[in-house]
Amino acid sequence: MIGVVLSWYGGLPATVRNRLGRALRSLAVVLLASALLVAGYLIAFRDGQASGRRERAAEIDALNADAAQREVVQVRALAKAHAQAWTDYSAQVERGNRLDARLQEQKDFAARDRAQLLRRIDRVTREYISAPGAAPQSLPAAVFTAGFVRDYNLALGVSAPEAIAAAGIGDATLRAAGADAELLATALRPEDILAHIADYGERCRGIEGQVNALIDAAQPQEVKP
Q1: What share of the chain is helix, strand, coil (3-state, %, to 5)?
Q2: Going along the chain, which residue ranges are E strands?
Q3: What is the per-residue pLDDT for 115?
Q4: pTM of the shown model
Q5: Cα 199 to the chain's mean position, in Å?
Q6: For a 10 Å CB count at each end of the chain, is N or C smaller?
Q7: Other CB atoms closer than 10 Å to residue 55's CB: what's the count?
Q8: Cα dist. 92→98, 101, 144, 174 in Å?
Q9: What confidence score (pLDDT) does residue 223 get?
Q10: Closest by Cα among 139, 140, 148 to 185
Q11: Which residues pair with 127 in a beta bridge?
Q12: Residue 137 β-bridge partners
């Protein structure tokens, strides 16, 4: 094939061969320039890509570093909030324990005082002395009317029917005694009143302690500097 081309080229006139040679050289120059241009473009493109990747890598690294820093800040803030919440919770538990211990102490005091009062009931309700140094004498019988018992219970908040029943005033008695029913004597004794007020006083002191504990619990806790 190459021989045929050479034979054909050798058979051409000299002027044609010269013109064809110049054209081929020009074409070779154009092809070489194009090749160089394409190569330069490819090199520039490659370098641009590499530079872009480096710049993007720097930006990505900066973004990653910023994200990591924000995550560290968030983790620290969360840990601080958790620690503060635990501190506040522990303080509230400790405060609740103190209030509960104080309330229990008040209940114990009230129970102790009630027990001491009950032990003294017989002594203070059975005998008396007319003057210091005098011999003890038996107390005269104390009479408490049905009206007294009724009003005593009403003063404590007992309903009227229950207060009347506690006084021993039934319907039959009311009909038989009429308006004087409240003056009828009852079996109530002074020791009964003391025993009742001892129980009632202990209950009242317990309720008072609970109310005070609730008030203290509702008060804002002092912040220590």
Answers
A1: 80, 5, 15
A2: 127-128, 137-138
A3: 92
A4: 0.56
A5: 38
A6: C
A7: 10
A8: 10, 14, 52, 59
A9: 46
A10: 148
A11: 138
A12: 128
Q: What is the pLDDT of residue 143?
A: 92
Extract the residue ranges of the chain whose pLDDT is less than 50: 223-225
Cα-based distances in Å from 28 to 10, 36, 104: 20, 12, 110
Q: What is the pLDDT of residue 129?
A: 92
pLDDT single digits (tens) 34-56: 766 666 666 666 666 666 666 66
Task: Give the SS3 label for residue 222.
Answer: coil
Angle at 202 between CA 191 and CA 115, to 5 degrees: 55
Tokens standing for 66?
A: 């910023």
Q: Which residues lie below 8 Å from residue 147, measured CB to CB, with a gap of 6+?
A: 167, 182, 183
Q: Are 108 and 100 in contact (CB under 8 A)?
A: no
Cα dihedral: 38, 41, 45, 46 (round 10): 60
Q: What is the pLDDT of residue 39?
A: 65
Distances (CA, A) of 184 to 33, 91, 181, 187: 139, 60, 6, 10
Tokens 């919440």 locate to 85
For residue 185, the SS3 value is strand
Q: Is 100 helix (H, G, I), strand (E, B) or coil?
A: helix
The label of the residue with tokens 């008060």 reads: 219
